[in-house]
Write a structure and sequence with these properties.
The chain has 8 helices and 18 strands. By secondary structure, it is α+β, with helices and mostly antiparallel strands. It folds into 2 domains: 295 residues, Lipoprotein localisation LolA/LolB/LppX (outer membrane lipoprotein receptor (LolB), chain A), CATH 2.50.20.10; 78 residues.
Length: 400
């Protein structure tokens, strides 16, 4: 279905409304947050196929963006499905080995961080529920098992039914600013994407769709610049509530979506209070959070948390070709595979996954996915962004 307005008209419509002061930082965060949030917060919202094109009143891109901004859904429950295809190599069970090693090292398989790598690839089904800012639950359904992450007031619980292990922590103090988003909604991704809209971006309304039985408008965001790996971002927006129901990011290289996240079933009724009740099962091993490590760091949040980790980075370039760079202080590049010990073996393994490059900056290794690429130089500098390998090397040459 043809867009309701042209790319140029939609871009011009954004004007002064999109917080220009945050655009450069947000530009880098948007594509990386898609990966980072998927892997760092278990906060992805699975998506589903359209089932028709409902006849809805016409709306401009600017009006649809404003509708998203005004959306304030406090209560919901549903089933979600998330598919992630970064083009990562088969690690041959490395994720399980790392999780097992962490457990043997005194950690817990119920710790949220032990589940994060599972969402970096493949397709996963989740059940989600939220009742205001202080109560959320996300359950990752596995074969014959289930992992649940529950936020109820000050308590945050993680429970792995497979190992019968429990992780318990506390959320941030009520006196501090703390944002615990619904565990699985595309709204966070949409918010970050919209921060990146400026004159380097085309924004249009691309027809209508039905997602999880709800009538929705489709907002299409496309970079105009070359050198970025981002092809397009499509957001299905609930026509009634303004809440994003589906978020799909496709790479410029084509093929399957890097991230397809959206509801397969959703209800905006208040979930039963018992949904958020949790008592450790009899015989379960309970691990309390370590001093100085807040469980709230693992609670479902927006991509903002990932962005905060980039505060020490310098941003090179503009728009969708922005690159974050920082100095690790580690000279000599990756550990050599010829070294003794785990560090050498791991370094050799990583090196085998990357491409060796050289330029005015010296030598280094580029690690590539279908979305985010990173260059680690032999003198310890890192350049990363949703850009091509050639764009990274050029930035390193110019940034030397």
């Amino acid at each position: 279905m043809a867009p309701y307005e042209s790319d140029d008209a939609a871009s011009a419509a954004q004007g002064e409304d999109l917080h220009s002061g945050r655009r450069k930082a947000a530009r880098y965060v948007v594509p990386v947050a898609v990966v980072g949030v998927a892997a760092a917060t278990i906060g992805l919202v699975p998506a589903l196929a359209d089932s028709g094109d409902p006849d809805l009143p016409k709306i401009t891109a600017q009006q649809l963006i404003e509708k998203i901004a005004k959306s304030d859904v406090q209560q919901l429950s549903g089933t979600v499905k998330v598919s992630t295809d970064l083009g990562l190599p088969d690690l041959g069970g490395l994720e399980s080995s790392l999780a097992s090693g962490a457990a043997q090292g005194g950690g817990s398989s119920a710790d949220p961080t032990s589940k994060l790598t599972e969402l970096v690839s493949g397709t996963h089904t989740l059940r989600v529920a939220t009742d205001g800012p202080d109560r959320q639950k996300l359950s990752l359904l596995e074969s014959g098992a289930e992992y649940s992450l529950i936020h109820d007031g000050k308590d945050i619980w993680g429970y792995d039914s497979k190992s019968n292990e429990v992780y318990h922590g506390t959320a941030a103090d009520s006196g501090k600013e703390h944002r615990a988003e619904p565990p699985a909604t595309p709204k966070d991704f949409a918010d970050e994407a919209l921060k990146s809209v400026d004159d380097t971006t085309s924004v249009t309304v691309d027809g209508t769709a039905q997602v999880a039985g709800r009538d929705a408008y489709k907002l299409l965001i496309k970079p105009k610049q070359s050198g970025t790996t981002v092809g397009a971002i499509s957001i299905a927006v609930d026509a009634k509530t303004g809440m994003p129901l589906k978020f799909t990011l496709t790479p410029r290289s084509g093929g399957a979506a890097v991230l397809d996240a959206g509801f397969t079933q959703v209800s905006f009724a208040k979930p039963a209070a018992s949904t958020f009740d949790f008592t450790p099962p009899k015989g379960a091993k309970v691990t309390e959070e370590k001093e100085g490590s807040k469980a709230s760091e693992h609670a479902p949040t927006s991509g903002q948390g990932f962005a905060e980790g980039l505060d020490g980075a310098t941003v090179l370039g503009e728009g969708w070709t922005s690159i974050a760079t920082f100095d690790t202080g580690a000279k000599g590049g990756l550990p050599s595979g010829s070294q003794d010990g785990a560090d050498g073996a791991f370094g050799g393994f990583l090196g085998s996954l990357g491409d060796q490059v050289s330029g005015k900056f010296g030598k280094g290794t580029v690690f590539s996915t279908r979305l985010v690429n990173a260059l680690i130089t032999d003198d310890g500098k890192v350049y990363a962004g949703a850009v091509t390998k050639d764009t990274l090397v050029k930035a390193a040459n110019e940034g030397k």
